[in-house]
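Input sequence (380 aa), recorded before submission:
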Amino acid sequence: MRQLRTIAWNAFTELMRQPVFLLLMTCSSVFAVFLASTPYFGFGEDPKLVKDSVLATLLLVGLFGAVISASSSVAREIRTGTALAVLSKPVGRVVFLLGKFLGLALTLAVLTYVNLMSALVASKISFTAYGEADKTAFFLFTGAVALAFLLGGFSNYFLNRNFTSDAVSFVVILTTLAFFIIAQKERVGSMFEDHIDVDYRLIPAALLIFCAFLLLAGIALVCSTRLDVIPSLAICSLIFLLGLMSDFLFGRWAEPAWIAFPSQQSVQSAPFTFEQKSLLSAVIEQVDADDNKQMDASEMNAISQKDIQQMQEAGMGGQWWAQAIYAVIPNWQLFWLADALENEKVIPWSYVGRAFAYVFFYLGAIMSLSVMSFESRELS
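Predicted structure, token format:
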């Protein structure tokens, strides 16, 4: 356990000292607050546009940072021989990889936290998108980031400390302080006077995005045990794109036809033969009690076992290859619930808990694959 903590802490401090991490964290957080201070002329939809934008910024920056950090952390140490030096001591490869991932997870948690602070600030100041922008709040937040850089430079020049890691620490502290000050600030002159509070629903939304970071970091860790940074980045980018489109590419093939195409209109565009479409259309017409040419959940339950068996025999029960790919490639849409925020809904914490449980078991499989790949690799 002591070895695991040491490796995890060393990986965390090493990643915190990377200039690219500081650059990603500060640029994304300042950009999020800047988005909230810019008029969108969205006919009253400005707050929704701002929330979508800041969550999208967090997602893209975090996924890029996760892949770069995971790939460089392991691949660079293998290439430079540092991994061989560590493993020559009584340290197992399982402990080495697990410690690296825990350090990476802590780093991604810091990145998510700072961007969450900026997202919460954006939700507070975005409501003056029409009229005069909340310049005070904007300059307070950006001033906190600038002060963090100044303090980092001070500690580097006078105390010979690492600039990047100290700047990251100061950014975390000062952006938190700036958020609490802005959250207590009274808002006047806004056309959205009924919605002037911080939207704390962004917290579970950010936690779900953090789950996506962990998944992609685990996949990048598998790649980095065999590949260098650029090939790992290319593979993870491909997996990310496939995961974004997995519902369209694999979901409709993986699910039974009566679930994937529950309406008469969707049946016409389904990738089936004429006989298959006719069979599915007849089943929909048979159970359509309210005569709206589509099946809801209760009507699907009314489908007889005979009809289900007949559709399965016709090849409409879901393709095994699509089910396998759909299960292996993460569906990133499950971690993107910005639409729920737009409709003034609350993301249930039970959903967040299930997402973390899914990530836990998925990472267990990913780490097992990483260990098998790393164990069979000869280091030199």
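Checked by second reader. The radius of gyration is 25 Å.
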